[in-house]
Amino acid sequence: MTETPLLLHVFPGFGPGGTQLRMVSIINSLGRSFAHRIISLDRNLDAARSLSSAVDVVVEGPLEKPGPMAFRKIAATHRPAAVLTYNWGAIEATLGARIASVCPVIHNECGFLSDEAHALLPRRVWTRRVLLNRIFRTAVTSGTMLNVARREFRLAPNKVQLIRTGVDVARFRPSTDRSARTRWNTDADAVLFGYLGGLRPEKNLSLLIRAFHAAAVPKSKLILAGEGACRAELEHLSKDLGVNDRVILAGHQPDPAGFLAALDVFVMSSLTEQVSNAQLEAMACGLPVICTAVGDSGELLGEAADGCVIASGDETAYTSAIARLGLDEAARETAGAANRIRAVKYYSKDRMVSEYGALFESAVSARHSAMPHTARSRV
Question: Are residues 139 and 188 in the same domain?
C-alpha cells in the first residue's frame, strides 16, 4: 500500500486570515490525497475550526524555541513529502527545511504587512533572493506579487509559480436573504456598506470610517466584521466623529456568506493587498466593490473597476465613491452583476484547488526522483 504523502505547513499564525482560510479550503478539497501537519508560530489556532474532520490533519503550536535549527530538526524528524511555508513570518522555517534537505520546500508569498506596505525592506529582499532560488518553488497568488518575485527577488522563471486565488461560487452567490440585518438593527431599505477581514493597521480602516462619515449617505450604515489590534482605535474614531450609532464593529462572523448577503456594497481600504479572499467572495455574491488600487484588487473587478478603485490613501476620492454607489441603486446592481460574472469565469475555487494539487504532486515526485542529489547540497 502506498503511504499517503505528508505535507508539513508552517504559518506565522493560524488565525482566520485570508492565507490561512484559503489553505484550509484547499486542504479540505484535496481530502485524503495528502496528510497534513500544521505548525502555527503563535498561539492563534482559530482557523483549525474550519478544517474538515474527514481530512488527516494535525495542528500544533507555538514552538518553544523556533528558529532555523528547530525547523531543521522538525523536518528531519517527520521527513515529510514537502514543507510549505507562508510569508515572511515563516522564512526561518523555509531556511531550516532547506538546510535539512530531506524534501522539497514550497514557500508561499501571499502579501505584505504594514511594515512593507510602501517599500520592501532591503534585508528581507536579499534574504529572499538568496534563499528562494534554492528551494523547489515559490507560489504567489497575484500578478502583482509575481512581478515583485521576478523583479525584486530575482527568482528564476522555474522557481516561481502564479496560482490565482479562487472562490467557492456555489457557496458564495447572490442571495435575497437579508435576515442578518436584524442583528444590527438595520432597516430593509437602509444602504449597508460592509468590510470583512482583520482589523489590522495595513487594512487602513480609519480612512474607511472617515470617508463613510464624510459621504453622509442617508439611511446608511457601515459594518466592520472581524477582529484585530485596531478595534479599540476604530471604536474611538467612530465615537469622535459622532457616527458610532452607524458604524458597527460586528466581530468575527462564522458565516461569511450570510454576512455578505446582508450587504449592499463591499468596501476595503487596504494599504497593501495582493488578492483579497473577502473581495472575491463579495464579487461572487454579486456585490459592488469599492477598493484601493493595491495588488490585483483593481484587476479583479475588470470593467466594474470604473470609479470603484481608489488610489491608496485618497480619502476624498473614496468619499465620492461611497456617495455615488450609496445614492445610485442601479449602479450598485450593474456593478454587482458584472462582479458575479467575473468571479465565476476567472476565479473559481475548483481551478485553484486543481493547480495547488498539481504543485504538491510535482513536489512529491521531485522528492522521489531528486532527493539523493539534493541531500548532498546545502545553502
Answer: no
